[in-house]
Amino acid sequence: MKDLSDLKRRPIPCSEEALRRRGDYRVSVPIDVAGPLASEGCLDARTEGLAGCNHYNSAFNPPYYVAAPGSLPELFVRVSVLSRLHAVNERLRRAGLEIFLYDAWRPQAIQRFFHDEWFPAWLKERRPELEGERLVEEVEKYWSAPTSGPASPSPHSTGGALDLTLIFSHNRQPLFMGGIFDDLTRLAWTDGCERAGGLSMSEDEARSNRRLLYWVMKEAGFSNNPTEWWHYSWGDQMWARLTGAPEAVFGAYDPLGMDIS
Length: 261
Hints:
alpha+beta; Muramoyl-pentapeptide Carboxypeptidase, domain 2; two-stranded antiparallel ribbon; 8 helices; 7 strands
């Protein structure tokens, strides 16, 4: 097992290449709907000893400053994902660190709001040249389309995808990652700090911290969405495509009897 300081010196692979490999994962990757984990339940990570606060359930949530329609305070994750997160925390403990969750299982109302309304409007204000398919393509670099039937769930509807960062355990302060959570621009790409030339102290700190998060999660079996340094998953279709697994083990899940269609 590698020392944590070694992980800070290990570069993050090219996000552009990972984005190409990610491809049309929701179309081409099958889901093992009859497998042993398909119906595995979810638990609220907060009640299971993990730190976190649902970013969409409050108006104190830059860059949005609005509580998302349909948001909820819970951070639901699949049981097998939860066990992997505890293993990550156990490893981080030696450095006085732990993970902090921003989001996990997500109602489709939230997905529709940001994919269909908030982010397209934000983009059009700043990049009016984006129209039609080009606008959709840019939106979907960061916000997946809502679930489209049982064979194409949005990642966060599976209970296997989560958004997180690292914090200091003693004071709960987040480590500097070079940009805010949900910065929906190229700055958010996981390798964004690898491309810098002469590094300032801030850039060096962000690069080291992104590397640490990336490798400690990857070595626990998670995959990373290459356009978002904070997004990791285990068991969903994106995870299967990026790790080479033949199929996803999680489809859409409904921990509260809500609309997942």
